[in-house]
């Protein structure tokens, strides 16, 4: 996990440094450039939906124009974005249909920099509403910088390495405060929603200091690394609960009240009913051979290369190519999740992925530095052979059992 955290950090810094984000694109009348932000990419690197809706309101409904190059306007924007984030985040925890998206970020049972990168695919489709009032006065350029800054700030606080920041703990959202937010101990539930500042929690009564050892993750563990399950399992659960109740008020309660709510309970449910935490709990960590771990790390790095290529060249590619490569990345992440989970279908899925990878490599959709071309092809060929044999032996054993 430490290695994975390091890789993510390096990649994150590299991507931010090399991205073509230019605040002046969103100043005044030249805001139409926002179409270049592709909504398919994670919101850490692009905020397509939020910024597009913001620009629409700014273009059509703004009441006044705060100067984009004034210091006080920038400080004001910093405060208002952070204040809005507090409410985005609080509603994401207190309304069950919004929690269905946000729970993705809380699904990690580890707490490190890679936890910050667990982002929901669907959350940005609701959070934009909370920022729209700003569009009546604050230029999109200022908003675009501060919404990104607010998210980037929250990256470094996902760590257990920093215990206490002294007097800064009063004002800033710190690793200690955010550890509480990620906890499933009773005292941690629905606490510390702040983004860059913790003052909003202190003001609105949702602050809790770090106490007993924090146990991270969802109250009800999901025990998987499969990305689609992590992203969408809660919607399925919500649908089941919605159908379980006969009365319309209870059905609506399932959607509009807190995740722990039940009929006859307070709006946010009874936190005393959440499973007790002793501090001895271990994260879901299936045992798998070292060779497979190395395999997953190498394929993970190759996938980062594919993602980086796609991110850099997406404006020159056709929509179909972008979709195909996005599909390949999602398939790869799913397959890696299957391998880590040790699912019986993992060999077959990985075999199919290796076939696809070989084709993409052969037809030039995956670029690699010249000295690495042959080693990559050889590694992919060996992977293909290995998973082909695994699949074959699995099919044989299934056939033997059935006869
Ligand atoms: Zn949260
Ligand atoms: Zn977090």
TrEMBL record:
The lineage of its organism: Eukaryota, Metazoa, Chordata, Craniata, Vertebrata. GO terms for biological process: lipid biosynthetic process; membrane lipid metabolic process. Belongs to the sterol desaturase family. TMEM195 subfamily. Its cofactor is Fe cation. Glyceryl-ether monooxygenase that cleaves the O-alkyl bond of ether lipids. Ether lipids are essential components of brain membranes. It is an enzyme of class 1 (oxidoreductase). GO terms for cellular component: endoplasmic reticulum membrane. Pfam families: AGMP_C, FA_hydroxylase. Residues 292-372 form the Alkylglycerol monooxygenase C-terminal domain. It is found in: Endoplasmic reticulum membrane. The chain crosses the membrane at residues 71-88, 128-149, 290-308, 320-340, 368-389. It comes from the Eukaryota. It is a multi-pass membrane protein. It comes from Oncorhynchus mykiss. Residues 75-206 form the Fatty acid hydroxylase domain. This is Alkylglycerol monooxygenase. The gene is LOC110515972.
């Amino acid at each position: 996990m430490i290695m994975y955290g390091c890789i993510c950090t390096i990649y994150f810094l590299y991507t931010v440094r090399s991205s073509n984000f230019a605040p002046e694109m969103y100043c005044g009348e030249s805001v139409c450039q926002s179409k270049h932000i592709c909504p398919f990419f994670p919101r850490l690197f692009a905020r397509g939906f939020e910024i597009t809706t913001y620009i629409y309101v700014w273009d059509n409904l703004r009441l006044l124009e705060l100067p984009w190059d004034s210091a006080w306007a920038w400080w004001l924007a910093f405060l208002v974005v952070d204040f809005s984030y507090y409410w985005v985040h609080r509603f994401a925890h207190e309304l069950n249909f919004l929690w269905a998206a946000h729970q993705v970020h809380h699904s990690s049972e580890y707490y490190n920099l890679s936890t910050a990168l667990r982002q929901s695919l669907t959350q940005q489709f609701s959070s934009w509403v909370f920022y729209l009032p700003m569009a009546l006065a604050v230029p999109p350029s200022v908003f675009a910088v501060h919404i990104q800054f607010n998210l980037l700030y929250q990256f470094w606080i996902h760590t257990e390495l920093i215990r206490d920041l002294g007097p800064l703990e009063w004002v800033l959202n710190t690793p200690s405060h955010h550890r509480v937010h990620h906890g499933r101990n009773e005292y941690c539930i629905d606490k510390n929603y702040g983004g860059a500042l913790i003052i909003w929690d202190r003001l609105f009564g949702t602050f809790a200091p770090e106490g007993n050892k924090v146990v991270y993750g969802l109250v009800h563990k999901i025990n998987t690394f499969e990305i689609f399950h992590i992203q969408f399992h809660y919607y399925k659960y919500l649908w089941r609960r919605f159908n379980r109740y006969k009365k319309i008020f209870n059905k609506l309660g399932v959607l509009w009240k807190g995740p722990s709510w039940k009929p006859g309970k307070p709006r946010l449910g009874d936190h005393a009913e959440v499973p007790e935490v002793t501090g001895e709990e271990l994260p879901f960590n299936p045992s798998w051979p070292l060779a497979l771990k190395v395999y997953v790390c190498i394929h993970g790095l190759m996938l980062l290369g594919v993602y980086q290529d796609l991110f850099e060249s997406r404006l020159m590619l056709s929509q179909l190519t972008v979709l195909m490569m996005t599909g390949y990345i999602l398939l790869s992440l799913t397959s890696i999740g299957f391998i880590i989970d040790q699912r019986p279908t993992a060999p077959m899925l990985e075999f199919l992925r290796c076939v696809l990878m070989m084709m993409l490599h052969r037809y030039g959709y995956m670029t690699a530095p010249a000295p690495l071309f042959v080693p990559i092809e050889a590694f992919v060929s060996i992977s293909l052979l290995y998973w082909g044999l695994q699949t074959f032996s699995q099919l044989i054993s299934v056939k033997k059992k059935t006869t």
